[in-house]
C-alpha cells in the first residue's frame, strides 16, 4: 500500500498512537480518586442494605409465623413476579 500524496511513511507512524502512549494517556485522564469514592459509596449502600435485611428478618418471621404455608407461598410468588416486572 502506498502512502497518499504528500505523506511519507514517517508521517504515518507519528500520526498513529503507539500502544504505550494510548495506555499512558488513559491513565493520565483516569480519575482514580473519583472512582474510589464512587466505589466506596456503593459499598456503604450495599452494607447498609444487608444490615437492614438482617434486622428485618426476625420481623418477617414473626409476622408470618401464624400464617398457613400456602398463603405464604402465594405471597412469595407474587413478590417474585413483582420483582421480575420491575
List the helices and strands and how they pair.
Layout lengths: L8 H7 L3 H11 L2 H33 L4 H17 L1
Which characteristics define this entry?
86 residues, elongated, mainly alpha, 79% helix, 0% strand
Task: Characterise this structure.
The two termini are 55 Å apart. Helix content is 79%, strand content 0%. With 86 residues, it is mostly helical. It contains four helices and no strands.
Main sheet summary: none
Name the helix and strand elements from N-terminus to C-terminus, one letter apiece. Answer: HHHH
Span between N and C termini? 55 Å
**Total count of strands:** 0
Number of domain units: 1
| Range of helix content | over 70%
Describe the structure in brief.
With 86 residues, the chain is an all-alpha fold.
Amino acid at each position: 500500500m502506498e502512502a497518499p500524496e504528500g505523506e511519507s511513511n514517517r508521517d504515518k507512524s507519528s500520526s498513529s498512537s503507539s500502544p504505550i502512549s494510548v495506555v499512558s494517556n488513559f491513565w493520565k485522564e483516569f480519575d482514580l480518586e473519583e472512582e474510589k469514592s464512587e466505589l466506596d459509596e456503593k459499598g456503604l449502600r450495599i452494607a447498609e442494605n444487608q444490615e437492614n435485611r438482617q434486622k428485618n428478618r426476625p420481623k418477617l418471621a414473626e409476622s408470618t409465623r401464624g400464617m398457613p404455608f400456602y398463603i405464604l407461598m402465594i405471597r412469595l410468588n407474587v413478590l417474585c413476579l413483582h420483582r421480575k416486572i420491575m
